[in-house]
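Example 5.3 — Acetyltransferase (GNAT) family protein
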Amino acid sequence: MSLTFRHATLNDLTTLVELLAADPIGKTRKKVQSPPHQNYIKAFEAINNSDNNELIIAERDDQIIGSLQLTFIPYLTHLGSWRCLIEGVRVDERFRGKGYGRQMFLWAIQQATQKQCSIVQLTSDKQRTDALAFYRSLGFKDTHEGFKLKL
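Solution (predicted structure tokens):
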């Protein structure tokens, strides 16, 4: 039941977009097609070419179970420490409820620890009540109020 982790490749992009679109909120925001829309390709290349971003695939028996993005951010606060932002977390709906999401987060937190980050943070849509409860079960605290401005 253990997962292996690797950096995503361009060949994974269609599957990644499908994972992101496979929920009630995501399906309204994503455009699933093969080959992937050019904007997804450009975003993938920007992430892939950044030293502070990692697009990660979680696999079991060479099958993609889930994905997430890690962004490492330097801050002047907390004595100039680094933070790890975890975003775009998805587990294939066929594999939910089996502990894979927990494995993915524990792995991501370990990566942040190895990079000497002092904080791991994430955002989640308030409509994702199951996800919010899951994050709390991992020890995340909802200590701040988040704001977004769509442009």
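Remark. DSSP finds five helices and five strands in the chain.
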